[in-house]
Automatic annotation (TrEMBL):
Tree of life domain: Bacteria
Pfam families: NIR_SIR_ferr
One GO MF term attached to the UniProt entry: oxidoreductase activity
Nitrite/Sulfite reductase ferredoxin-like domain mapped to chain residues: 4-52
SUPFAM superfamilies: Nitrite/Sulfite reductase N-terminal domain-like
Coiled coil feature spans: none
Protein name: Nitrite/Sulfite reductase ferredoxin-like domain-containing protein
Lineage: Bacteria, Pseudomonadati, Bacteroidota, Sphingobacteriia, Sphingobacteriales
Length: 72
């Protein structure tokens, strides 16, 4: 019996100075939810990690997420 391989993609967002406003963070989370992001966590070095599995992601919403991040 073969093991089931699970692929998880991680999107790393660098937060300048480790700071993100509440409004910006809320917009990032809304876009991430819309894109089917499974997990959101903070890194040790001023990063925000968004994890998504290929089964749940919505590619056009991922592109929208990147556009949201680029506006900041």
């Amino acid at each position: 019996m073969e093991g089931k391989e699970t692929t998880i993609y991680t999107i790393k967002v660098n937060l300048p100075g480790g700071i993100v406003s509440v409004g910006d963070f809320y917009e990032i989370l809304k876009a991430a939810e819309k894109a089917g992001i499974d997990t959101v966590r903070f890194g040790n070095r001023q990063q925000l990690y968004l994890q998504v599995s290929p089964k749940s992601w919505k590619i056009w919403s991922i592109i929208s997420l990147f556009q949201t991040l680029n506006m900041r």
